[in-house]
Every structure is written in structure tokens, then in C-alpha cells.
């Protein structure tokens, strides 16, 4: 069966040209179809330059777009014909199998929940990020969907991350670490200490707390945290990587010798760039929704979009969602009922739902 | 008046030799005296190699040491004669003016509060970290003392950070940013949203929310966050910086050309290293305690210890503590009474004290 991916062609900071270029790369390199969702005049204008791609790309008109800084909930409520809403609607009415968007990530998340709903027994869908490390890719979640969490949510993030890591990277029983500020179980804030107990009692391959420095070592497959901490980590990492490269470049332009050194080592810098390229996996998969969606970085280039489309297809073909449900029911700890009633550990954070 | 700094000579992963070497550098390069707190047999053995330093270094015997992974509260309760406790006791009995320790940071923080107490109206002392950035040093707090915070605590971290930034880096009306996951005031978790309101109503130079990527740009003087998030940021930054350098080195050793490039650019790498050297400021000042203390990294070398001793003296001479109290009372928002009763914003997090 040919899978069809709905691409929010109006999303992202680089504009529809870049989105279309990504879609064309995707259909060129795979057996997938892509539906371009957005303003048909604009998209037709771009697409006419690529006659060879016509048969496997179709345009679905959406009269509205959501800007990057718009309130997600306002956007969803008021813009029923936005490219994001329309893309998820494509899944709902059976015309597409997954959504890829580099647009407003809050609106993408909210639309996913609105149009697809949650997987059975999943309390809160999360956004996973794939970090490059010294060894193998790491799945970290939540990186922004849920800023105030209960222990049960963190536990389910672990389940979802493990299913994803297993299906996409072929890792058997992925190891799960809980992000904290000390390795011992007693270290951390109230939320993390309670979540630690849930993981410890489960049948998951829980290796205990991990620290910020462990993220890039590549010794753990899945790292769990709340969406506030995860989003901060993601942005600190982006900002620091850019600052380090910028400082090194400055230092290397200060003397002729250093400049020559830089020129000779340029390929090494390029190889390094490839190792840490966010575009390699295209974007951040939404886990826990009853369907498939990938949120791409606002600055995504065509390559990132192509890879996100590929990853979306892999998620569907490998059956991530049924694996999440299976793993949750096998975890020996959490069925939906227990989760919805709230466990003792849940109550400790004192957070109102 | 000659200031005397009490150095926990048994702290740190490199052992007493390194601590003593730092103390000797400090007295050589300044007019300060240093008291070495620790096992007198060990310290006398080391000190005999440096006869010229004898007059401005004295040893204060402490029969116990606290290990790096010991529970801080157990350590404080059971080891009354540890080098950490004894160091703070030196301040209490008037024999020293500040403490520097590279030992167990939890125990150092707890001892500071036990022996020195808090500054008037300060609810929770915090640990500040000084981050290198593309422009100027940034003060970030809390980086680990308080993992579960109320909005009022974050507000006071802002006051303390601003006083420190003003006194140590000579910045007039330091700008304060609140670490969140979006720039608009409405973005963030419950804690951050409430703290945002407190800052907004105050007379501090509050510039609004900042994101993880802003840390290294150097456009803000003080960044405020809870101790869990701050500690994660600190460790993510350390881990990522090491991973990037390690990946670059690997890439640069792969071909003769890249190797040659690395050799030519070696000085640039060294200059870069200096720019991001944690040892430049020696350690993380404790702010909000009624006295002066600096927590150094466990891996501190002699240079870091020397600089921490220098910064401790600068904190005393510039009157950071009285500036904190002045700024708090001037902030137009928080006097101790109001703070202790808990404001409306406080209650929103629902966290029990």
C-alpha cells in the first residue's frame, strides 16, 4: 500500500518553496505520495517548475495559515481552514496517513490531539526529540507539549519513548533514564522522585536517574523529563552548539596560521556538522496521539522535510502506536483506569489537573 | 583589614595537594590570608614544601571529611568536625570572613545555612553560576539548591543575581531574564508564569522571559530559574561542550590534512578553552546566606581555587550582601512579611512548604 503523507506546505520560516522541495526529494527517493496542504495558487505556481513530480504530489487547498507566534488555541478555534488543521483533517477523512509540519508547533500539537485524539490509556501525548550523541541517537521526551506534569505522565513518556526507540532504531528493550540532578533515586524534585518510584516498580528497562551530562554520552536510549525541562534542554543545546562553533571560528580567524589550520580541517568541521545535523531525523515525532505526526524545526530545510516524511512512514510501517499500547499494558503497572484515578505518587505533586 | 578565607582543604576530587596549591597561588597574588581546614597531619606534610607561604596560611584541624556522594543532611548531623562544618564555624566565631569549598556541594550549602543563617527577608538562599557567553559573563541562579520553588523564591533569586552582577561585574541595573520556553509572558509552566507577574510588577530591570538559546548570547545579565532546571542546564552545557570538542578532535584526527589543520589551529583551540574555562571565576557563589561562601566544582584545579578565593574577597569588599537587602527592599514588591505570608501568586503552584 502506498502511504500518503500530508505536508503543511505553508509551515516553516523558509516558506513554501523549501517545503515543496522537501516533498519532491521525498517522493524521488521513496515510494511515498505527498499531499501538499496550503494555498493552491502559491503551491501551483511552485509546482509547475517540477512537472516530473506531478503524479505523486497533489495539492489540497487551505485558505488560512497559522503564523509562528500565534496562540495555538486561538489558531485552532478561529482558523478551521488553516494548512495545519486541514492536514490533520486529511488523516481523519482517510486521505492521508501522517502529517509533517514545520509550522507553529503548539498549533500542530493541539490540532493532532483535536483531530486524531489520544491513544487508548495515554494521558498526555508528548513531543519526542532525537538527539545526536557520541554513540547512537537518543530519544528524549517530552520536549515541550506538557509543561506541568504528574509522575504518571513521565512514566508514560518512558513507555512511548521505548516503543519509538525499539521500532525506529531497532533497539531491543531500550534503556530508559529519568532526567534528574543526581544519580541516586532520592535526588530530584518532588515530581521526579515520584516518577522514579513508578519506573522502578515497572517491567520497563529503567536504569534510574541520569544527569544533563549523560545526554550526549549515548549510553542510554530514552531520557524522560517534563516538557518544560525538555524544551529548555533542547534550546540550551542548540544555543551552546552555535556559540561554541562561533567562538571557535572567531579564534581561528585571528592568525594566518590558525586560518590555514581551519582551511585544512574544514572537511573535519563539515563531517562534525553532519554528525550533529538536526535535519538527519527531520523533526520531533508526536507520540501518544492516535495517528502519526512530526513537528519539524521552524528553520527546516528541504532535507529535514524529506527525512521527516521518511520517518513518518517508518513510524506507520513499524507500528509504533500499537507497540506503545502493548508496552503500556505490559508494563505491569499502568492501565488507563489506574492512571486516570491518579495514583498516590500522582497526588504528591499537588498539581491540579 | 586583611581578609581571611577559610578553604575546605579536604574537598574536591583532586585532593588536598591541589587545594593547598590554590591557596598558595591566592596568597602569592593578593593581600589575603587563607586558613586551610582539614587533617593537620596531611596538611602539614604538604605545607612543609612551601616554607615561604607559612606566614599567611594557617591550618585549622578538622578530624572528619565529607565524601562527595554522602547525604548532605546526614553529613551535617553526624560529622560536626568535618572540614566543611569547621570552615563555616570559622566565620561564625570571627576567625574567617568567607568559605571556599570544592567538596560535597549539598553539605556546603546546608552548612552555610546552618552556621550563617539567611539574610533578612530572604526565603531561600541560592547557588549562582557564572556562565561564559559570546559577550559578557552571565549570572544564572538557582543552579541546584532549591529543586521545588515558589514564585517568590524565583523573584528573590532575581534580586540576588542582580546585586551580584552589579557588584562583581560593575553592571548598572543588570537586566534580569526569566528562563522559560517562549518569550511571551504567557509561556511557561505555572511556576514561571506566576514569577513573571511578580517581576513585572517590581522595579527591577526585568526584560521578560528568555529561552535556553539566549544563555550563551550574552545579551542578558542575570537569568533566573528553579534549582532543578538550573542544575540540568549547567550539566547539559558541560556535557555538550565536552561532546562537541571530543567529536571535533575525532574528526580532526582522521586525515593527515585535518591533523595538520588541528596543529596549526591549536592555539585557537587553546584560546577558545580559556574563554569557556570554568576556573576563571572559580566557582558558584552562595547568595542569600548571612555571610560569604563559594562552592567550587569537584574537579577544581589550583587556578579555580585561587580565583574562588579572589571572588569571595571581592564579594565581601563590594558588600554584595547589604546590596541584596537594599535591592530587595527597593524592589517595591517584596518585604519579608509579605513574602512569608505567601502572595497569591505563590499559592498557585499548590506546593506545600
Can you describe this structure?
Two copies of one chain form a homodimer. By secondary structure, the first copy, chain A, is of the alpha/beta class. Chain A has a domain at 134-279 and 320-353: Isopropylmalate Dehydrogenase (3-Layer(aba) Sandwich). The first copy, chain A, has 14 helices and eleven strands. Chain A has helices at 16-29, 40-47, 72-78, 83-92, 105-116, 151-169, 190-201, 227-252, 256-264, 266-275, 302-318, 320-330, 336-341, 344-348; strands at residues 4-8, 33-38, 57-61, 98-101, 126-131, 138-141, 176-179, 206-210, 222-224, 284-287, 293-295. Chain A has an eleven-stranded mixed β-sheet with strand order 3-2-1-4-11-10-5-6-9-7-8, sandwiched between helices. In chain A, strand 5 and strand 6 (138-141) form a beta hairpin. In chain A, helix 4 packs parallel to helix 5. Chain A is globular. Chain A starts with a strand and ends in a 5-residue tail after the last helix. Residues 335-353 of chain A have low confidence and may be disordered. The interface between A and B is large, with 67 and 67 residues.
Would you report the number of β strands of chain A?
11
Describe the biggest sheet of chain A?
11 strands, mixed
Shape of chain A: globular
Would you tell me the structural class of the helices and strands of chain A?
Answer: alpha/beta
Strand content of chain A: 5-15%
Oligomer: homodimer
> Which two protein chains have the largest interface (Cβ within 8 Å of the partner's Cβ), and how many residues from each?
A-B, 67 and 67 residues
Cα distance spanning the termini of chain A:
42 Å
> Uncertain regions of chain A: pLDDT < 50 for 5+ in a row?
335-353
N to C succession of SSEs of chain A: EHEHEHHEHEEHEHEEHHHEEHHHH
Radius of gyration of chain A: 21 Å
Helix content of chain A: 40-55%
> With helices defined by DSSP (H or I, 4 residues minimum), what is the helix count of chain A?
14
Main-sheet strand order of chain A equals 3-2-1-4-11-10-5-6-9-7-8
The CATH class label of the domain at 134-279 and 320-353 in chain A is Alpha Beta
